[in-house]
Amino acid sequence: MFSRASSAKEQAQEKTADVVTVKAVPSIVSADLTIEGNLHSAGEIQVDGVVKGDIKCKALIVGVKGSVTGEVLAQTVRMHGAIKGMIRAKSVFLASTARMSGDVEHESLAIEPGAFMEGHCKRITETAAPAPVAEVPRRTESLATARVGGVKPALAGA
């Protein structure tokens, strides 16, 4: 009924599944590091130092002493430090020590009391498409023949 070959095959599949679910180590910009340039990562970036440039990643964590000047595009952003520039992310969290100067486009936004936020917040949806422009109906009747509430308006001299 059960064979050794099938159980070995199942074990190999389980090991492959374990390898896929292993989390990668985040890329860290340490407190004594300043980067001038853009950062791109398929994983998580933690900024404890200074970044002067745009960041595009899956998840961004800005530490209490961390600072980013530039545009941020990510799935999730957790701010404990400072960002000057636009953030576009699915989920944005500003801790009480956060200092944000710029616009935030988000699906989910949480701001703790004490956080500094200067800029516009705009809720977006991933599937949002520009709304079609509705046409303004054209007036086909002249003012002389228009009816208001079923009654013809009185004309001067009539």
How helical, in percent, are the residues? 10-25%
The main pleated sheet reads as: 9 strands, parallel
Number of helices: 1
Q: Which outline best applies?
A: globular
Strand tally, please? 15
Measured between the Cα atoms of the first and last residue, the distance is 102 Å
Please trace the helix and strand order, writing H or E for each element: HEEEEEEEEEEEEEEE
Beta-strand percent range = 35-45%
Structural class of the secondary structure composition? Answer: mainly beta
Taking all residues together, what is the mean pLDDT? 80
Secondary-structure blueprint of this entry?
Elements: H1 4-21, E1 27-29, E2 34-36, E3 39-40, E4 44-47, E5 50-52, E6 55-56, E7 59-62, E8 67-69, E9 72-79, E10 82-84, E11 87-94, E12 99-101, E13 104-111, E14 116-118, E15 121-123
Parallel strand pairs: 1-4, 2-5, 3-6, 4-7, 5-8, 6-9, 7-9, 8-10, 9-11, 10-12, 11-13, 12-14, 13-15
